[in-house]
Amino acid sequence: MHGLKRRAAGADSRSLKAVVADEMRFIRTWASKPLTTGAVSPSGRALARAMAAEVDPAWPGVVVELGPGTGAVTAALLARGVAPDRLVAIEYNPDFATLLARRYPGVRVVEGDAYSLGRTLALHDVGEVAAIVSSLPLFTRPPLQRHDLVAEGLSILEPGRPFVQFSYALVPPVPAERGRWSLDVSDWILMNLPPARVWTYRSAPLPS
Question: Looking at the domain assignment, is residue 38 inside a domain?
């Protein structure tokens, strides 16, 4: 309950009622599909801001958000300066997808499978991608599937552009691979419930 109060107190223009509604929506969805949802509550503002900070709104192309849920990171990306029409949110849960489309009418919400990322982007004619920001619960998936998602995401991006992922774990969802991609990690974001870190993957520059 203290975490809920902390999260509600940090909301800017959102009412306490809306914050509580999102919390309860997450809890219900997690209870029915824990492996798909992964978290019992949305990302907090501090975590969402830390993820969005890895994105430069001036980069050409769209920003692809994976597993946006109720839109905490979506809001942070918009506040960061990403134009709504340059944000593509891929959400597997149809209830969350409907909510996102209603809450952020300028954002392109795609109801699809982020773990088939290339196929999903191709089906919806998504062009150049500037960055990928993921809130997917990667630790609910086998190591090979996590690896393949990061590898596919980085293959879509220009070298040096970020694939941003958060987790609550002590170890990275996918380790760095020498010669393929680097990995940076943030400090613990203690204001989040539970505390989390941001892992940022970047593919290695192409050989000259």
Answer: no
